[in-house]
């Protein structure tokens, strides 16, 4: 009795999967009328290298309040940081479609 009661309640509360709306788009991007967007934060911070297989960026905390920082730290902050393979994989997705420029 309990199983038949729950099945009737389930059928009245939860609609069948046939009537649920689709959770994906059937149109292509060109038909949809919008463009792919680059990630603004990554676009401002990272530059791709000539081969397009890696990225570089400057390090933060080197613009102001440098009097209290030791010279070794200032030298370390002035160097260029390069992306790891995992970061490169993510950056190519974030900077699509312009990540290889």
From TrEMBL:
Keywords: Ribonucleoprotein, Ribosomal protein. One of its GO terms (biological process) is translation. Coiled coil: none annotated. The keyword Metal-binding does not apply. GO terms for cellular component: large ribosomal subunit. It comes from the Eukaryota. GO terms for molecular function: structural constituent of ribosome. Residues 40-62 are annotated as: Disordered. PANTHER family: 54S RIBOSOMAL PROTEIN BL35M, LARGE RIBOSOMAL SUBUNIT PROTEIN BL35M. Belongs to the bacterial ribosomal protein bL35 family. This is 50S ribosomal protein L35.
